[in-house]
Recover the amino acids of this structure.
């Protein structure tokens, strides 16, 4: 399939349920310093990447980091589920504040992929109902996501598309 083009100095939101492969994808296509991860931020503010009670502080830090990078003209990839419209909206607004483009890369995979992957994961403690809720939120998001202010919304519909994707940074 066609390569995914991203704005060289802009923002990229990864969008997908836990287990959909966002962090793996980010590692394969972007430099470690280009990736701002909600889990890493949670770890930094709580010593525990799974501490859901630290979510507000973690996203405060995430937004702060993203804002600084965009101001400095650095490509920035947000590795968070971003399945809620409000979560995406605040990041789209941040890009707009910094006059940079923002793309979304959506992991709209078959439901069972994320559930099955998380079942065998040691680094995730929550149950399948959490994944199911996130998948539902993602599905609900798909209809209107193109009107949320993204320059482009790239949708990966199956594992082969996600694993085979190529990224091109625009000038
Ligand atoms: N995985 C896989 N094949 C892929 C992508 C991921 O087998 N193409 C596996 C990873 O090795 C990992 C699990 O699936 O054990 C979840 O992948 P990850 O990239 O960590 O998913 P995320 O979307 O980042 O999940 P989370 O939101 O929970 O961080
Ligand atoms: Mg991850």
């Amino acid at each position: 399939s066609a390569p995914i083009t991203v704005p060289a100095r802009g923002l990229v939101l990864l969008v997908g349920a836990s287990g959909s492969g966002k962090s793996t994808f980010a590692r394969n296509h972007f430099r470690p310093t280009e990736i701002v991860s909600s889990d890493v931020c949670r770890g930094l503010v709580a010593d525990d990447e799974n501490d859901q009670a630290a979510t507000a502080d973690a996203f405060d830090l995430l937004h702060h980091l993203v804002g600084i990078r965009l101001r400095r003209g650095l490509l920035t990839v947000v590795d968070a589920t971003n399945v809620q419209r409000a979560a995406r909206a605040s990041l789209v607004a941040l890009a707009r504040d910094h006059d940079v483009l923002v793309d979304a890369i959506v992991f709209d995979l078959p439901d069972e992929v994320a559930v099955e992957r998380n079942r065998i994961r040691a680094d995730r403690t929550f149950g399948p109902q959490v994944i199911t809720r996130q998948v539902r939120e993602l599905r609900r998001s798909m209809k209107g996501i193109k009107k949320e202010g993204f320059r482009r919304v790239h949708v990966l519909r199956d594992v082969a598309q996600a694993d085979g994707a190529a990224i091109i940074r625009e000038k």
Observations:
- Strands lie at 4-6, 11-15, 35-37, 76-79, 102-107, 153-156, 167-169.
- The pocket of magnesium ion (ligand 2) is lined by residues 22-23, 39, 79 (CB under 6 Å).
